[in-house]
Amino acid sequence: MYMRLSKLIISGGLKDIYRGSCNKLVPYPLPLPPQHSSTDTQNLPTPSPGNGNEMIFATHLKSFTILEVLVATRNFSPDYRLGEGGFGLIYKGWLNKETLIPAQPGPRMDVVVKALKPTCFQGHREWLSEITYLGRLDHPNLVKLLGFCSEAGNRLLVCEFMPQGSLENHLFRRREQSLSWALRIKVAVEAARGLAFLHASESKIIYGDFKSSNILLDMDYNAKLSDFGLAKAGPMGDLTHETTQVMGTQGYTAPEYMATGRLTKKCDAYSFGIVLLELITGRRAIDNKRCCEERNLLEWVRSQLREAKKLCRIMDIRLEGRYSRKDAFVVATLALQCCHPEAKHRPHMSEVLSILENIPSIRANRQPELSSSKSKIIGDGPSSWSHGCHYGSQVPMDCKIHP
C-alpha cells in the first residue's frame, strides 16, 4: 500500500526525483489530488470550540498540498523522521521562512510535519482539535501551527520546530548536562503562562493533557505547550465536560477526572503540580523501576515533606545543591497545593503563575546563562545558590504543605 513518486511539483516548475537517490517510500498511502490553491481552506470542517455540531474554518492557516509537504520533507525521508506518537509519524522539514513554500530560495525555517495514521479515528479528532485551538490562538508559550494538509483523505499538520526537544527528555534521559535550577523555574513560569492564557481565553480552553513531554523548548530554552489533541473549550454556564472515555496520561490525570470523567480547569492545575514535582525531583510521575514506596512521585513527595527539613531528600541530585532553599520550598509547596485531592482547594493557574513570578530569583530577573561551557548543568552561571541540604530555620513559615 505504499506509493512511489517520481515527480514532485515545486513552485515554478516540475522537478524529477531520480530513482535510487531521492526516490523514497512515503509513510502512508498518499493519493495525488487535483491541484488547487494552497490557501483554499473552505473545504476543511473543524469543530467549533463552543459547540461540537458547528463548523469553523481556519482561514488564516496555510493549506498545504500533498506535493508541497513531500517536497518539504524530501518525500518523507527516513533520515528526517523524528519519531512516532499516538497521532502518527513525525518528520522534520524545511520551508521558506517568508512564503512558507518549500524548496524556494531565501531564508529557510525548520518545521515539524505530523502525519496522521489513516485508520486512527481518535487521531482524526485530535487533528481537528489541534487546528481548532492552535490554529486560532497566538501566544509566545504555545507552539505555532503554520498549516495543515487535508487533501484526498490525508491529515497532516505543519508546526514550528523546537530544536531543544521536550522537557521530558531533558529531565529523564540521562545526558551529560542537566537543566539548571534557574532554567527549571523559567520553564515552569512559561508553561504556567501558557496554561493561564488558555484558561483566560474567550473559550476558557482546558488543555487536558499537560505533561512534561508536551512542553517543548526552542533554541533559547523558551517553553511552549504542544499537542492540543485533547483540549476542550470550557463548559458554558453550569454545564461541565463529562465523558465515559477518560483520556490523558497515567500519573498526570486528576483523580476526580479518573473517577467521574468530569474535566475542569482544576484538572490542568493538578497536572501542572505533577510537572512541578518532576522539575524539582528529576523523577517521573510514575516510575515502575523504583521500589514500591517511590513509584508514585506524588505519594513519595507527600511522605517526605511531612517535615520541611527533609526537602533535600526530594531534590534532583543532578542540581548538585545549586538552588535556593527558599525557592525550592515554595515550589514544592505550590506543587502539592496544585495536587490537592479536592479540586476546590487547588489554586487557579492565574494564582499559580503569580506565585511563580514572585519567586525571588524570577523577581530579580535572574536569567539563566546559556553558554557552551563544560559545566554539567545547562543555564547555570557562577553559583550563588545556597545548598538545599542545610535548610535549618530558613523555611518560610507562611508555607503550608498538604499531607
From TrEMBL:
Binding site for ATP: 114
Assigned EC number: 2.7.11.1
Keywords carried by this UniProt record: ATP-binding, Cell membrane, Kinase, Membrane, Nucleotide-binding, Serine/threonine-protein kinase, Transferase
Name of this chain's protein: non-specific serine/threonine protein kinase
The Protein kinase domain, residue ranges: 76-362
One Pfam family cited in the UniProt record for this chain: PK_Tyr_Ser-Thr
Catalytic reaction annotation: L-threonyl-[protein] + ATP = O-phospho-L-threonyl-[protein] + ADP + H(+); L-seryl-[protein] + ATP = O-phospho-L-seryl-[protein] + ADP + H(+)
Enzyme class of the recorded protein, top EC level: transferase
Localization terms from the record: Cell membrane
Recorded family membership: Belongs to the protein kinase superfamily.
GO cellular component: plasma membrane
Domain of life per record: Eukaryota
One MF annotation (Gene Ontology) recorded for this entry: ATP binding
InterPro entries per UniProt: Kinase-like_dom_sf, Plant_Ser_Thr_Prot_Kinase, Prot_kinase_dom, Protein_kinase_ATP_BS, Ser-Thr/Tyr_kinase_cat_dom, Ser/Thr_kinase_AS
UniProt key word ATP-binding: yes
